[in-house]
Design a protein that fits this description.
- By secondary structure, the protein is mainly α.
- Strands 1-2 form a two-stranded antiparallel sheet.
- Helix 1 packs parallel to helix 4, helix 2 runs parallel beside helix 4 and helix 4 packs antiparallel against helix 5.
- The N and C termini lie far apart (39 Å).
């Protein structure tokens, strides 16, 4: 996303930049000083949004109210039609900051893994839909194959998958509907975005590269 004409290609990389439970580098496309600052400012804002919303609710039986508060604020950061790289990087930063904070705010809640998965799925779908509508569709997302998970990971992924699909299929903003960007020519990138975003603690690429290098040395 070094130039505006590259927005469609790199928006998918921005979507793939949202992660859970780990320190996150600046997504591809936000490397310039101005855009990196936009992402980091957005990420700090997202963490603050999640914490403030949870403090106002502070009740595991009112998670839906917490989600409504956070999503309503997230949508205020949604990029306009023909968005700049700055607005895209800030928007994805806000979403990343929210996701980063979920472990903290949901700590101690019953079925926390399922709740967190559902919320990550909703946030990821909102980001996918807003970017798809603003850019009239995304390019192919990076392929990612989920690894095996145990009980918590399975609950997270089930909740995330269901929430991502349900949110995307029904999402509408003033510029249009998300549904057309979930089917037809956009179905592969939609499914890959869901696969990427709802993977439970995916292994970082640099770790995979290090393991492969180590294996090659051994053999």
């Amino acid at each position: 996303m070094r130039r505006l004409v590259q927005l469609t290609l790199c928006a998918a990389a921005l979507v793939a930049g949202i992660s859970t439970g780990s320190a996150q580098a600046v997504p591809e496309g936000c490397e310039s000083p101005r855009d990196e600052r936009a992402f980091n400012v957005g990420r700090a804002a997202g963490a603050s949004i999640a914490r403030q919303a949870w403090r106002s609710v502070n009740d595991c039986d009112r998670v839906e109210r917490f989600e409504d508060l956070v999503i309503s604020v997230l949508e205020r950061y949604a990029p306009p039609p023909a968005p700049t790289t700055y607005s895209l990087c800030r928007f994805v930063g806000v979403a990343a900051g929210i996701v980063d904070t979920l472990d903290e705010v949901f700590f101690g809640c019953t079925d926390a893994c399922l709740l967190e998965g559902e919320f990550v799925g909703e946030i990821s779908a909102v980001v996918y839909c807003e970017l798809s509508i603003a850019l009239n569709g995304l390019s192919t997302a990076d392929a990612f194959v989920r690894g095996p998970v145990q009980v918590c990971g399975l609950s997270f992924e089930i909740g995330c998958d269901a929430s991502f699909l349900g949110t995307a299929f029904s999402y509408v903003n003033p510029q249009g509907m998300c549904l057309p960007f979930t089917e037809g020519e956009f179905e592969p990138v939609f499914e890959q975005a869901r696969e990427n975003q709802c993977a439970y603690n995916p292994v970082p690429e640099d770790f995979v590269a290090a393991q492969e290098a180590e294996d090659s040395i051994r053999h």
